[in-house]
Specification:
Belongs to the UPRTase family. This protein is an alpha/beta fold. It contains six helices and 13 strands. The longest helix has 19 residues. Bound molecules: 1-O-pyrophosphono-5-O-phosphono-alpha-D-ribofuranose (PRP) and uracil (URA).
């Protein structure tokens, strides 16, 4: 199925690294490093449309004009906990980005999102926001996080994840047709426990070594 606001970032290095992220035998340390690296590679693509302005600088040879990214600082908003695992990777490419947080977990029984924390910079108008979570499963958590951002005055949002399920893409696109979803992979489906198949398991547990 074709989703208008879905961008699958198709790159051999991302595909390669994602294979080892999916592999259940990949140790925690390597898992985190790979997630970071994929996030960094994805950030390169996600920031492709950032506006530029010309400034004057002086090289050791002469004065010249050169390009810098214009506008206010970007805000990264990881959905706690697992979203934290991708922040450092994105910060490697956008070190000046601010970092907000939204704390949401999926109730294991109802699989509905439960929000417990929210903090973003106060002057959020005109800033570009990147909402971050490795997993888009039912879509409940990401839909709610984007809703809260909008409720707090945020206008420009992109959502990035590692793996999306068709069900999550459908739900997110319906709730937020104005937000582009960037993913490294679109998987087959959800299982009866609403985990992504084939997926990578529980992203938070694998990142933080919990169970
Ligand atoms: C995971 C994941 C997403 C959510 C996706 O978080 O990181 O936030 O589930 O599922 P959904 O699309 O069906 O809402 P989890 O609830 O396990 O919390 P954690 O990151 O604190 O482990
Ligand atoms: N949350 C995860 O961490 N993994 C899934 O497959 C679904 C939700």
């Amino acid at each position: 199925m074709k989703y208008e606001n879905l961008i699958i970032i198709d790159h051999p290095l991302i595909k390669h690294k994602l294979t080892y992220v999916r592999d259940k035998n990949t140790p925690k340390k390597e898992f985190k490093e790979l997630v970071d690296e994929i996030a960094m590679l994805m950030a390169y693509e996600i920031t492709k449309d950032f506006p530029l302005e010309e400034i004057e600088i002086e090289t050791p040879i002469c004065k010249t004009k050169s390009w810098v990214v214009s506008g206010k600082k970007v805000v990264l908003v990881p959905i706690l906990r697992a979203g934290l695992g991708m922040v450092d990777g994105v910060l490697k490419l956008i070190p000046s980005a601010r970092v907000g947080h939204v704390g949401i977990y999926r109730d294991p029984k109802t699989v509905k999102p439960v929000t417990y924390y929210f903090k973003i910079p106060s002057d959020c108008e005109d800033r570009d926001f990147i909402l971050i979570d490795p997993m888009l499963a039912t879509g409940g958590s990401a839909v709610e996080a984007a809703r809260i951002l909008k409720e707090n005055g945020v206008k420009n949002i992109k959502f990035m994840c590692l793996i999306a399920a068709p069900e999550g893409v459908e739900a997110f696109s319906k709730a937020h047709p104005d937000i582009k979803i960037y993913t490294a992979a679109l998987d087959e489906r959800l299982n009866e426990k609403k985990y992504i198949v084939p997926g990578l398991g529980d992203a938070g547990d694998r990142l933080f070594g919990t169970k």
